[in-house]
Automatic annotation (TrEMBL):
SUPFAM superfamilies: STI-like. This is Uncharacterized protein. InterPro entries: Kunitz_inhibitor_STI-like_sf, Prot_inh_Kunz-lg. CDD domains: beta-trefoil_STI_VvMLP-like. Residues 1-25 form the signal peptide. The keyword Disulfide bond applies. Keywords: Disulfide bond, Signal. It comes from Escallonia rubra. One of its GO terms (molecular function) is endopeptidase inhibitor activity. The keyword Signal applies. SMART domains: STI (SM00452). Belongs to the protease inhibitor I3 (leguminous Kunitz-type inhibitor) family.
Amino acid sequence: MGLSCLASAILCLFLSPPFLTSTQSFSPTSNTTVLDAEGYDLQPNTMYYVFPVQRTGNGGGLALASRDRKCPYYVIEENYEPSNGLSLRFVAVDNKPTAISLSTDLNFVFNAATICVQSTTWRLGDVDDVTGHRYVISGGRTGRPGVDTVSNWFKIEKFEDGDGYKIVFCPSVCNFCKVVCGNVGVFIENGKRWLGLSDEPLVVLFKKV
């Protein structure tokens, strides 16, 4: 994937059939506030580390890494378990809440810079030609919800089977767009832990910096 990947993927009605059917449904469970690791409300535009609930054998915090020495950078989970990774902030779709709620459309923005000279806002990439996976990558646009940014919005949901939360891609910022929804999980490839759409979610907590 080269520099041409800087263009956002627009998953709309006019796209090819693989993107026209939602494979998973994520309806809002409640308007419950997301809590950080200390039990406080998760706040917008405040720096947090994101790390797995079970760190033993599950890697460390989240960061960015180059894949095949090309841009854009991909979102990874650090292999080194004690590592907190890079801090990031959450930008809510209305940019007004005092706390982040479950099922809210969010931008995830790393507090970092890369040699790719592009934003560190998360976005969901296209289907990889080699692996068939859709990875979470950088280069998204913050704010401006709509058809042009639909691939840049993620949600936080409560993990159903225990403590912690999961990150979900199922944006609702475009009423006429059809998106392939899914959990954000981890693919272990070439010695790294790449984030992407997966049946198995990465269960996380949020630690304020």
